[in-house]
Amino acid sequence: MSQIVGRILRASTRGFDCGTHSNGISDIHNFGSFVKAPIANDESVYAIGVIYRLEIKDDQLVTELVMGEHVPFNVLQDQRQNRMIPVEIKVLNIGFMDSMGFVHSLPPRPPMSLSDVELCTVDEVYGFTQRFDYFRLILGASEVPTDDLISAAIRVASSVRPDDEYRQFLVSCGQQIARDLSGDLKRLSHILALIRP
């Protein structure tokens, strides 16, 4: 059964933004989660990305409540649980999936507005992260917290591994990052510290 993360607001081949409401926020919306959305005019090809930013939007009522001296607890709970506060989720594309398998490159087209964005299944995350070519798309992204994002994505990918593969997967990730960042030892050291079990 698919887990819907949200619906596309705007998209490009580089990434997309999707929206949902605050009532539905859960661990499927976590930073570094792998998500997918069908590309424009082709339901057989899915862009694959990682969540790199969540924004809970405000409105006039929230602004007024924030400035109140003593807001009753039941009013706060009502605002959090019953109002549909918009949440915007930003995703960086790191590949795509078609009938031939996984490709670690930007998708051929972006998803269409209002398309469902789904959490990738355990099998999809496992299959996609068998190779590490997508690391360069994360490490080279601009306006994205790349060091934290790659470590979060690695933690998500390691969580779908069987116990006997877990440690070797992290070691292989560390080796690939060391190759990718051999000229930036400070950054390399920081990322390795973030993924250390």
Shape: globular
Helix content: 25-40%
Q: What is the residue-mean pLDDT, rounded to a whole number?
A: 91
**Biggest sheet architecture:** 6 strands, antiparallel, barrel
Distance N to C terminus: 31 Å
Number of strands: 7
How many structurally independent domains? 1
Secondary structure tally, helices: 7
Give me the Rg, rounded.
19 Å
Descriptive labels:
single chain, about 200 residues, alpha+beta, 6-stranded antiparallel beta barrel, 7 helices, globular
Question: What's this, in brief?
Answer:
The protein is of the alpha+beta class.
How would you describe this protein?
The protein is an alpha+beta fold. The chain has one domain (4-195). It has helices at residues 60-67, 73-82, 122-128, 135-139, 146-159, 163-180, 185-195; strands spanning 4-11, 15-21, 34-39, 42-56, 86-98, 101-103, 116-119. It is globular. The two termini are 31 Å apart.
